[in-house]
Amino acid sequence: MKRRDFLKIAAATGATAFTSSVISRSTWAASAPNTPKVLNLLYATAEADSEAIKLILEDFNSKLGVKLNFETYPYSALQQKVFAELAASSSFYDLLVVDTPWMPALTGKIEPLSAYLNNSQLNNSADLNLSDFIPAVFYDAAVYNPKQPHRHFPNANAPVAVDIIKKEGFEIYGLPLQANVLTLAYRKDLFDNPQEQQGFESKYGKKLAAPATWDDFVSVAEFFTRPEKRLYGTTLMAGSGDWAVDDFKTLLAAWGGNGHMITDDFKMAFANPEGVAALSFYADLINKYKVTPPGVTSFSWDDVSDTFNSGLTAMAMNYHDMKLNQGVQGEVAYALVPKKVAAGPHFGTWILSVNKFSKNKEWAYRAVAWLTSAETQTRMLQKQLHPSRFSVYQKAVTDPQLQKDFANFYDVLGRSLAQGVGRPRLTNYSDVSKVIAVAVNNAATGSQQPQTALSAAVPQIKEMLSQAGYSVGNA
Question: Where do the domains of the chain lie, and which CATH numbers do they carry?
Answer without folding.
Answer: 3-181+347-417 (3.40.190.10), 183-335 (3.40.190.10)
